[in-house]
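Exercise 7b. Backbone tokens:
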């Protein structure tokens, strides 16, 4: 977990020690679809579990389960030819990441390979909720927009409705991970996740551009 902070690392360790597998994760997607979930669903994984499962097999099973897009943070587009070909044939979006340190050349390369949207990392470093967003985030989003018409979603460090509103005012999507994972811990996890999700959604929806 090269990009993950302590919250996601702990959750990942817990899942692995309890025997969670790739098949289990895809089964959860199928259950959500069967329960009526219609929103687009993106799977996020490091490349090693995907590679061990088998690239073509994973793509086929993911699409069959109801996955719409795939984010593999440690797989650069220069090394993703096999995965991109399988995703393209199956209609599965490939979503890459950009950081504030990305050059214009890198932005163009990622934009050329991305489908669905581009994941903008708000800060350099690891995942985890932060007390405030970087002051140059709007400039970063604007710089990427000059090179692509794809939707831009911002993640890393977002954990409150106020932060979600700020991001929604400059980007097309708000990505929240660690704050929701942390909220899920404990016996009242379901209620806490529901409350935080509502707070984040209200923040994002009240601050949409235009």
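Sequence design result:
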């Amino acid at each position: 977990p090269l990009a993950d902070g302590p919250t996601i690392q702990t959750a990942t360790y817990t899942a692995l020690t309890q025997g969670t597998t790739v098949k289990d994760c895809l089964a959860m997607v199928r259950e959500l679809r069967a329960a009526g979930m219609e929103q687009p669903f993106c799977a996020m994984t490091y490349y090693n579990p995907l590679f061990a499962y088998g690239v073509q097999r994973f793509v086929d099973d993911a699409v069959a389960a109801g996955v719409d897009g795939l984010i593999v943070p440690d797989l650069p587009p220069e090394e993703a030819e096999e995965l991109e070909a399988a995703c393209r044939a199956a209609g599965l979006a490939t979503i890459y990441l950009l950081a504030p340190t990305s050059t214009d050349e890198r932005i163009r390369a990622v934009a050329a390979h991305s489908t669905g949207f581009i994941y903008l990392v708000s800060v350099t470093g690891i995942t985890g909720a932060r007390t405030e967003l970087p002051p140059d985030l709007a400039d970063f989003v604007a710089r990427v927009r000059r090179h692509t018409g794809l939707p831009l979603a911002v993640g890393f460090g977002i954990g409150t409705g106020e932060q979600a509103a700020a991001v929604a005012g400059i980007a097309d999507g708000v990505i929240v991970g660690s704050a929701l994972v942390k909220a899920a811990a404990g016996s009242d996890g379901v209620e806490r996740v529901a409350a935080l999700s509502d707070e984040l959604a209200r923040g994002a929806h009240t601050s949409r551009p235009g």
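Instructor comment: The chain has ten helices and seven strands. Residues 78 and 109 are 9 Å apart (CA to CA).
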